[in-house]
Amino acid sequence: MKRNAGYCYTELADVLRAQIKSGFIRPGDYLLPENDLSSKYGISRSSVRRALLELQNEQLIIKHPGKGTMVTYSSDTSPNDHNELLIVCPSPSLFCTQMLPVLIPIFEERCPHVKIRVFSISYRDSLLEELSHLGVKPDLVVVSDQQFSMMHPDDFLAIPPSIVQQTNIPEPVYKAFLSHDTLLAAPVTYSPVFLAYQKHLFHRHHVALPHPGWTTEQFIETAKQLTLDTNQDGIIDLFGIALSSATTRWPLFALKKGADVITSDAEESSFHNWVQALTFMRDLIYLHKTVPIFPIHDMFLIQQLFDEERIAMMLTSLLAPARITGLTPYEIAPFPSEFDQGGMLIANGLMIARNASHPALAQLFVEVCMTSEVQAQMIQGSRFLSVYDSVNQTNWRKQDLLSLGVLPEQIVYSKVVGGLFTPGTRISELEAQMKKYWSGMEQPVDLVHRLHHR
């Protein structure tokens, strides 16, 4: 639907006002020419002129014939109640603990008159309603693609296309935040789920490193060779691989076999691939005994044991390994050649609350995060991924991008976690349904029948 001219004019005035008062555009700087503003925000030149006239009447700008429109507004450098931005983080969120501490200082440096406050709360479907009862009025809400699928679209504003480089974002990541073809969350970063390994353990125990093209049999044999009683007390204290019952981890094996979304009308080939993957994992645990059983339901314990070199391989994401600093770096392993069909992604985005106190300022935060420059700053010196392929190609080795499965020709076959199950699926209930399987008390084929409602 085409927006009316009045709305366009007030919206642009709000956006420019927020940029000026936040310090993003400094006194003495010139605004973009009218033609460029019209093109960038997709509105008419007459609406641009009306917006500029309002800002001129507020003494925020002045027009210099032949030069352009210059910012004249000068503000106190100390933040105040009128330019505080509130970001709500549904927890647990590795994006909030790992990425926001990187992004917030970048934004505050560019917008010195803004104070950012972060409010963490356990995720629930009634999140915004509960916040309202607490008197908390968020401007921005951080979401994973899985949480996004449970949000109510009417509670949020659309993300303007002008601030997102859609053609440079992997299609599965961009589509993860669409609701009826409208982008409701700006994808800021994402991570594939991948196989990580501790190279030092392989060297210490004289085991060949994972390599492109290795077979499933070689993978299993490697896991066996690294399942050891290292102190000769009769108890296994080093395991070849760890598996997690979290839906952000184990489905990768099925997707790598070519499985599709779990639905009652799924194709027989997809159904068979889910059975194969679950059988493979069960065998790793109970037949080959290369997986520690207790940590299966505790993803953070798996991470800790991996950091302590008690586990040689694990499925993880790029955000998780950075949780603890100063530890032995992990390596990215290619999957066995029989697991080369697809991949699984975890995407993270920012949503602008419809009832935000400062919607224009919230949009500015998103706009800053979505620039190529900030995306590059965000991942420099880290193992994070930008949502822009061009930024990743510059900052990552191609072999690592290949092992992660995120090169353009690979990632099109990946799926986000939030899109693996039918809409409305409660993950906690799904994980509860799998307890018998993880205990070795249910056949994989029976579990897959139940999950597909067959």
Automatic annotation (TrEMBL):
Pfam families, per database record: GntR, SBP_bac_8
Protein's UniProt keywords contain Transcription: yes
Residue intervals of the HTH gntR-type domain: 6-74
Any one GO molecular-function label of the UniProt entry: DNA binding
Coiled-coil segments: none
Keyword Iron included in the entry's annotation: no
Annotated keywords: Cell membrane, DNA-binding, Lipoprotein, Membrane, Palmitate, Signal, Transcription, Transcription regulation
Annotated InterPro entries: Bact_solute-bd_prot1 (IPR050490), SBP (IPR006059), Tscrpt_reg_HTH_GntR (IPR000524), WH-like_DNA-bd_sf (IPR036388), WH_DNA-bd_sf (IPR036390)
Protein name: HTH gntR-type domain-containing protein
Organism: Paenibacillus nasutitermitis
